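Before a colleague's protein record goes any further, I have to sign it off. Alongside the sequence sits a line of tokens, each denoting a local backbone shape. I want your independent view on whether this chain really folds as the tokens say. Where you disagree with what is written, explain briefly why. This is what I was given:
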Amino acid sequence: MAHARARLDEAIHAPVRFSIVATLAAASRADFKFVRDTVEITDSALSKQVSVLEKAGYVAVTKTSLGRRPRTWLSLTAEGRRAFERHVRALRDIAAGVDLDLQATPEPPDPNASLDV
């Protein structure tokens, strides 16, 4: 059995991209500025990271306008939502030590046992 880290998704694993995907997972869609402010990055940094996620098929970008003001909406695709769930599951498995074979670990010596000298 492969270690749970083999199930981590490289497109999501980077801290900023993980934060973006986690933010989008909490809603059906979010305004670009809301995500930028929530993740605490610049417009250009968000654009770059969203491009990576969009290329992976995980994020959809929709541009609309409100009067004369353009708005950009971000949302997770169905595949993006599944990838995020798999990634979080792998992180939880790593944190829980799921891959540890505790049966194969020898018992530590008893510090109270008498030593034969």
Summary: The chain has a mean pLDDT of 90.
